[in-house]
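Lest this sound abstract, we think one record worth quoting, the chain in one-letter code, the fold tokenised, each line plainly labelled:

>
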Amino acid sequence: MATLSLPLPHKLSSSGLSSAVQRRRLSVPFHIHPSIRLTCSANTNHSVSTSKENTCQFKELRNVACGVLAALALTTTSPVIAANQRLPPLSTDPDRCARAFVGNTIGQANGVYDKAIDLRFCDYTNDKTNLKGKSLAAALMSGAKFDGADMSEVIMSKAYAVGASFKGTDFTNAVLDRVNFGKANLQGASFKNTVLSGSTFEGAQLQDVVFEDTIIGYIDLQKLCVNKTISDDSRAELGCRN
């Protein structure tokens, strides 16, 4: 809960504000989890001025306070699937795996999509043509197989790829920011000139992965270098110091 206190004038004289100004508390509680709820209320003492100008000014200040806190609440939310959040049920669409060949038509780097792409448990082994350059933002990929696939120039922002298999997958020039690769098998994958900012690899298998010219933030790099499955050559490419 957050409370915002603002000074409000006690009353207005004919020439403007009086010299006697009292502070009243404008209490604006809001709750973000599990759902966003904003409640704006004004608590004042019994000596409230009946001046129309004062009332108008109070309403304006109250609206500003509510607007600020509403914006704060909205900016703290994200479509990224949290570790303790349940995944939606598996799609019953018989053509859901083929959705990868079309991809999303909007959103891309923001992880926004026109229709959810559920690729869980689909098999794209050695696919060299259908995935290249596709937008798979926020796609659900758990348990899917992309071994040996050409996924160069693909956009996978905010994808959920926990437990997926990408052995020998080519991610050259791809945008893979904020992807969850937890427990994924990435042995021999190529991240040449690939954006990996914000992506996580907890428990992932990273033997013989190519990280040539990979674009990754310093903090993300430190987390990645903790993974002991990364080969010495790959660690040198990344610049790992531990």
Notes: The chain has three helices and six strands. The helical segments are 52-75, 218-225, 232-238. The radius of gyration is 26 Å.
